[in-house]
Amino acid sequence: MTIPEVNEYEWNKNGDWIAYAASSTDAAKDGAFARHIADGAVKTLHAGRGHYKSLAFDEAGAQLAFLSDEADYAQKVSPYRLYYWKASPSTGSGPADAAATEIASAATAGMPAGLVVSEFAAPRFSKDGARLYLGTGPPPEAPADPNDKTPPVTKVDLWNFHDPLIQPMQKVRDQQERERSFRAVVHLADTRFVQLATPDLPTVNAGDDPAQLLGTSDMSYRQEISWDQDYNDVYLLDVKTGKPKKVLEHWGNAATMSPAGKYVLHFDERIGHWLTYRVSDGVRVDLTEKIPSKFQLENNTPDLPGPYGTGGWTANDASVLLYDKFDIWEAKPDGTGAHMITNGEGRKQDVTFRYRSLDPDEQAVPANTPVLLSAVNDRTRASGFYRIPSLAATTAPEKVVMIDKAFGPVTKAKNADTVVFTLSRTEEFPDLWTSGTTFKDMKKVSNANPQQANYIMGTSELIDYVNADGRKLRAMLTKPENFDPNKKYPLMVYIYEELTQGLHSYAAPNVGTSINIPHYVSNGYIVLRPDIVYETGYPGQSAEKCVIPAVNTVLAMGFVDPKRIGIQGHSWGGYQITYLVTRTNMFAAVEAGASVSNMISAYGGIRWGTGMSRAFQYEKTQSRIGAPPWDAPLQFIESSPIFWVKKVQTPYLTIHNDEDDAVPWYQGIEWYSAMRRLGKESYMFSFNGEKHGLRDRSNMKYWTVHMDEFFDHYLLGRPRPEWMDRGVSYQDRGKRDVTPLFKKKNAASSTTQQQEKP
Question: Cα torsion at 505, 510, 515, 521 (round to 10°)?
């Protein structure tokens, strides 16, 4: 059966009805329709020239809502209206309505003056089907009058220190603000309309609790969040009246409503504790102040860290599961009776336990039946599952399966004791596996990447090293599968922050902005990825204290040529490499993509992707100075490679695109200009129109081949490419054919100096 000219459709959950909107070349055939599957009968819900959109059934499949501007389509301004239709579901709860009914418009009682039903917010039903949520907003703008003689708008920005948001943030958010909607609700029992969100309280979550909802407002903190983190005031709103009550002020973390609506759960990062707010009387309780464990993430940025997270609530809000680094605690919301359900086994074994449900429709964590826990070994990165008899159990969790691979998400069959998941390692594609819920009969059922058998891949392992401060850390070392410990290999180092969590992550050979690990390993490189930890105020020195000892640890193993070591990283990794080449000459060649070279000028820049000032990054997050430059000028200078550029003796390659929306392009220009002025070997690729990382695949190929040529020359002894000596003129840019070659296991080496077969 073909239904023509459909622009949107929606099935109800039981498959009894399919609703669809039609946009026809014959305007009289525009409309919203519903087809009953059993007998093929079609009902016209609403028809006429106009737009029909945002079809939504309720959970039971018995009610439908949609938006249309048909009623005002002939006018210059045609705001949308909300329509409601009752279906006839398979449960036999009554006949279907003949047509849809309008239940909300600009003229509806309770609709705030100047607002209409928003076309940018799709309606949705509460889970019980008793309430229909919608969005309201200003009416659409009238089309421009071709006879209007008003002078064109002057294209000028005025930056005023009173502005809540700086001009670039306003620009980035312009479309979002034009399409902003404010949550409202229609109570379907009496079609009573209640406005919930307002311009002063713009965000209200559509929830399933019939009495109250959570809302947030950042309006008082908009200036502050341009140089700091997000902050909100948190409100409880009465669903029947829309009246708000403030429960948290200047809050920098999430707050959530418990499933039964009795509590607001929130984490106070200032003290590192979980707290509840009791909705009935406003009583606040600290759930974790007496628990001998830390629920706050380990953090090495100047910001206050958030929590490890939660595992969900038991029925009727009786208790909530809270995570520390390794174990799981069950806590009652009144602060009494907290106990560890994993019996301390997580910390004892360095295994991180987390609650996992196999039921996608689960409403609450089961308290009295066996509970499945995911498990990841923090030392080896082995993963798997454990089980406990119930939340009340006092015995250690029982191991179900642990394997030196990475488990992907596990999905259970609805009507069988069967699960499907993926398993992967560095060299193992994440194929599909199936088993019973005991995981004792795991069977691989797909072979999605058979061509990999023709190529040399790599195997990864964890190694331990000690940084310059005496701290024990780990690094990931990836070797070719035909590794020979008696040979001398080139070493490629890739850095960012902590990378060893990805020990079993699979990556296919590919092109991109950074080096492709399997491609480099396949072509005879060893690849090192060390974890890096930081001291506030000294991010560059922190990287130096970690990267150089990690490299020296590998050199001591005897299979790496100390004269053929390269390093590559992008963004934060690029900054650290740019700092490192002012401090060491151990690298034969480096690529530092989209690197900050001058923290003082970068601090005052803009992250164009969000429009935010970059200040927050240096004061609170990744750049880790912990203060503005007027309070810590020496740390900014010491951490800025540009002030030490004269020390560089390493061939330097970078990519910094002219529309970078994270690290300002001028940071790359500052460094390149200094290197060029000093006559030091440096090359900068800038792809026109690309942002922080490459997105166009042809650009990825072009860059990958040039970066490979750069490293292969210095580390594999391959011929020096012409572009390194002669450059490429503006007129000739981008004309080269750079189709990359990936060679097979039996391919011959192209140079006698290459140590491994490609």
Answer: 70
**Which residue in this structure is represented by tokens 């797909």?**
446
Q: What is the pLDDT of residues 415-441, one digit of tens each?
A: 999 999 999 999 999 999 999 999 999
**3 state SS for 199-219:** CCCCEECCCCCCCEEEEEECH
Torsion region of 94: left, alpha or beta (phi above 0 gives left; psi -120 to 50 gives alpha): left
User: CA 133, CA 82: separation in Å to the nearest integer?
Assistant: 10
* Per-position DSSP letters for 140-156, written without gaps between them: PPPPPPTT--PPPPP--
Of 275, 303, 152, the closest CA to residue 627 belongs to 303
Write the CB contacts of 92 (distance below 8 Å, at least 6 apart in sequence).
Answer: none
Q: Say how many domains are in the chain.
A: 2
Contact criterion met (CB below 8 Å) for 107 and 166: no
Residue 129 one-letter amino acid: G
Note the pLDDT of residue 750. 38
pLDDT in tens, 62-91: 999 999 999 999 898 999 999 999 997 655
What CATH number has the domain bearing residue 533? 3.40.50.1820
Pairwise CA distance, residues 307 & 325, whole Å: 9
Which residue range(s) make up the domain with 563? 455-726
The whole model's pTM is what?
0.90
The tokens describing 28, both together, are: 């009289």
- Flag whether 110 is in a domain: yes
Comparing CA positions, the residue from 34, 90, 21, 22 lying closest to residue 61 is: 90
